[in-house]
Amino acid sequence: MGARKQGPEFDERMQMVLRGIIDSYIDHSEPVGSRTLSRQLEVQLSPATIRNIMSDLSELGFLTQPHTSGGRIPTDKAYRYYVDTLVVANQLPSHIERHLQELSLLGSTTPVEALLQNTSRVLAGLTQFVCLVTAPKSEVSRLQRIEFIKISARKILVILVTKSGIIRNKIIDTPEELAQEFLNTISAFLNDQFRNHSLSQIREEILRSMVEDKERYDQLLAQAVRLGKKAFEADQPEVLYMEGQFNLLKNERLRDSQSAQQLMDAFEHKSAIMSILDDTLNADGVKIFIGIENETEGLQECSLVTANYQNENNILGSIGVIGPTSMNYQQIIPVVDYTAKILSKAISEQAYD
Amino acid sequence: MGARKQGPEFDERMQMVLRGIIDSYIDHSEPVGSRTLSRQLEVQLSPATIRNIMSDLSELGFLTQPHTSGGRIPTDKAYRYYVDTLVVANQLPSHIERHLQELSLLGSTTPVEALLQNTSRVLAGLTQFVCLVTAPKSEVSRLQRIEFIKISARKILVILVTKSGIIRNKIIDTPEELAQEFLNTISAFLNDQFRNHSLSQIREEILRSMVEDKERYDQLLAQAVRLGKKAFEADQPEVLYMEGQFNLLKNERLRDSQSAQQLMDAFEHKSAIMSILDDTLNADGVKIFIGIENETEGLQECSLVTANYQNENNILGSIGVIGPTSMNYQQIIPVVDYTAKILSKAISEQAYD
DNA sequence: ATTAGCACTTTCTTGAGATGAGTGCTAATA
DNA sequence: TATTAGCACTCATCTCAAGAAAGTGCTAAT
């Protein structure tokens, strides 16, 4: 004991053992013991040696023992190390690639909403986990067209089309009746003024002009700004497509009533999940959250693998997969990555110019 | 034996016992035996007598025994008899009534879609079962307004607003570029022609005029019919709002992996469930499907309680609750009934005139 | 017609081995 | 000095038997 300076050192053989344990646990979902591992490893190591190494790994916090005997399982820290340095992402199997490419064949009249939902569904089916897709953020979506349609005396339907292909409907009340003619003038004005601006930008500009131009309003401008304000108000919650919640119930580990309940509760709080995804929006490539790294209650026995999708101009939203921490990262990572790329491509082609 | 003519007769006491068993089973979800029941029943009957009656009820197909001993449970037939003749629907508890009334306070700018989804969510929360709400059938929905918006050279956004408040967006391709001016003329024409007609009616009329007027088309009419055909085509699947799928997992009986899996599979096939709901559209009041009466695979250990909602003119769609066959019908029936009425009221107020 | 009594079933629970996989430690080995 | 064999020990799981609880059908008494 006194000979060592600061706990066991982390050499190559330790890596091998750790990788072996994680691989085995990912495959079989069962604690792995020294004897079993000794048989599986390519390098010849006796169970006793492996036990020593395992003991060191436990001390370093990479392994735990569910029971005093009965093998060890990787900790979240181990998975983190695994995905950061050990894992080499697999080649994407061709049948999966083909499957995903169908998404991009959906045809140009498919609404973006359907495209997103389909992506979510396909990805959930392929991974057999829970799949998430956020709709393009209205923050960055640029205005393609806005239109007002009078549907009754004091109700106006607002149609808002963004460059990224999102179509939003909204009904607004007006204090007095406005003629359709007049509405057309206003929408023409707004289109002219704000086309290609991002929605959040537009909101700001409208607010600003309400303050600045307060006195020198003419009738039209006043109405335009007033309607515009209502029309662009971000009062609808952002949309999150979620599919395959039931897949997780197939997982033994997560099925005991307590975890299951927690999970389902977590899924009901879409806003919490959405905010995690939003936090990844500036990151590039695939990002992974393992176990306790997820702050959301109920997801702490799960891992989340996310990636962003984008058009030529902006990062629009993100996709994600939630599965057990012992998911097969080697497979999932390239699948998520590729899906994001396919979706980016599809949504770019969809965009209106 | 020889004395009785055709099996046991069904007298009042038998009814009492049957009701007692069902009530008890609904409460505790556990097979009920003669001794237990004897203690619970108001009328004094010895366990032995009850055993005799139970034996008769078994013979008549109202009870089964999961094991040779260990009490009996009601069959689907028993539940059917129960809801048909024994059950007296409870008064709606006031806290539930209050809860539901909030739905009608959602304000007139709430899109109908949000109203439906909210209804589904609230009902799922109240019942702790799965709740379904179908969107108003396009068959019966009457046209309020149609509008074409050109969003790129060969793409047109169709906005279709129905009297019942549904707003549908759709993108159609056109072979040649059409000016917005021209589109306005066409939508004016279509609005004039078809306002207040039901969508299915419109579809028919368009098809008819395509055949009849084949030669004497003028340019405008031809385009109007062509665009109208695409715009009114029923190519989007009808929408079904489903909430609370996870609630069923709380139910012991349905949680074993097999049933759970089947259930989840059933929920994935929304179209099948939708068609059940559609079949109830001409029925009045609350309708109940018990266990094997559900033809849909996977729902055969569940009961479905449905009711329709409507506006002044038409039955629009239906709502439903799916729970275990041993659900508390006395409570659920009035809840579903009342919810349908609230929804009818809310949606009528929403309608555009 | 109803009920008490009784023998018999069946499930569930409990506790006592037996089994198997794994562990830590020590001493022997290369 | 690093590795390995050996050994005693731990723990979860399986099996089995025995007993308790609850229920059933049948028969005979009321």
Name the chain pair with the biggest interface and residue counts per chain.
A-B, 33 and 33 residues
User: Largest sheet of chain A, order of strands side by side?
Assistant: 7-3-10-9-8
Quaternary structure classification: homodimer
Strand content of chain A: 15-25%
Structural class of chain A: alpha+beta
Order of helices and strands of chain A: HHHEEHHHEEEEHHHEHHHEEEH
Q: Count the helices of chain A. How many?
A: 13
Report helical residue fraction of chain A: 40-55%
Question: Would you write up a description of this structure?
Answer:
Two copies of one chain form a homodimer. By secondary structure, chain A is α+β, with helices and mostly antiparallel strands. Chain A has three domains: 12-86, Winged helix-like DNA-binding domain superfamily/Winged helix DNA-binding domain (Arc Repressor Mutant, subunit A), CATH 1.10.10.10; 94-137 and 238-348, Beta-Lactamase; 143-231, Enolase-like, domain 1 (2-Layer Sandwich). Helix content of chain A is 46%, strand content 17%. Chain A is built from 13 helices and ten strands. The first copy, chain A, has helices at 12-28, 34-40, 47-60, 76-86, 94-101, 112-127, 180-194, 199-212, 219-232, 252-255, 257-268, 270-279, 329-350, and strands at 63-64, 73-74, 130-134, 143-152, 155-162, 167-173, 240-243, 287-290, 302-310, 315-324. In chain A, the strands form three sheets. A five-stranded antiparallel beta sheet of chain A has the order 7-3-10-9-8, sandwiched between helices. In chain A, helix 2 crosses helix 3 (47-60). Chain A is elongated. Chains A and B meet through strand 4, strand 5, strand 6 and helix 11 of A and strand 4, strand 5, strand 6 and helix 11 of B. The first copy, chain A, binds a DNA duplex (30 and 30 nucleotides) through helix 2 and helix 3.
